[in-house]
Amino acid sequence: MQNQVTIIEHPLIQHKLTLMRKAETSTTKFRNLLKEISLLLAYEVTRDLPLKSEQIKTPLAPMNAPVLAPDKKLVLVSIMRAGQGILDGMLELIPSARVGHIGLYRDPKTLIPVEYYFKVPHDVEQRDMIVVDPMLATGNSAIAAVERLKSTNPLSIRFVCLLAAPEGIKHFCETHSDVPIYAAAIDDYLDEHGYIIPGLGDAGDRLFGTK
Ligand SMILES: O=P(O)(O)OC[C@H]1O[C@H](OP(=O)(O)OP(=O)(O)O)[C@H](O)[C@@H]1O
Ligand SMILES: O=c1cc[nH]c(=O)[nH]1
Ligand SMILES: [Mg+2]
């Protein structure tokens, strides 16, 4: 199977992403912008959710109105820390979604992800999964997270990020060819430390003000 890679080129996303990239953007602004963009990413990644009809009454007339099909249950999984920034926005749009967390940090020397936390809802086998992390750089973290999450048997998995490097997309697609990727932009390349260029720096540090 060949991955579907969707670049979400909506002007509002692109404008807000530019503001996030700027070195002078404060932690508060960075966090707010990521939340705002995440609402728009959530809109795109849920575009094909099935609907059913429900009989309702407006103040003027009865009608058959569309509502989300009740069996379409979602679980959002944040790759901590930086995934929390996308999770917050998505939960605002999909408040009934269940939430899982996987804690990973990238060893700065080896660029190998180290897991420090894992918790997903017990009924994940009946849910479609949306995994979120702003950055897909080497792809090692997303690959490890998805591998771990596949072992819990969700109905399906989608991966949503803000920025991706071409190297990370290639690596991820070679490993998890069945998982569609949604991103706001694909940047140019990775530097010798595994940072996305031009990128936006370390998403976790910028989100939480840890540097
Ligand atoms: O594709 P990769 O090369 O694996 O890099 C991407 C990972 O790096 C960042 O996390 P980081 O390790 O900085 O942890 P943090 O979220 O706690 O800052 C980012 O949020 C991804 O999880
Ligand atoms: O550019 C990068 C690469 C990995 N993780 C980040 O937060 N930023
Ligand atoms: Mg980080």
From TrEMBL:
Its EC number is 2.4.2.9. GO terms for biological process: UMP salvage; uracil salvage. The keyword Glycosyltransferase applies. The keyword Metal-binding does not apply. It comes from the Bacteria. Pathway: Pyrimidine metabolism; UMP biosynthesis via salvage pathway; UMP from uracil: step 1/1. Residues 8-210 form the Phosphoribosyltransferase domain. Uracil binds at residues 196, 201-203. It catalyses: UMP + diphosphate = 5-phospho-alpha-D-ribose 1-diphosphate + uracil. Allosterically activated by GTP. Binds 1 Mg(2+) ion per subunit. The magnesium is bound as Mg-PRPP. GO terms for cellular component: cytoplasm. Belongs to the UPRTase family. HAMAP family: Upp_B (MF_01218_B). This is Uracil phosphoribosyltransferase.
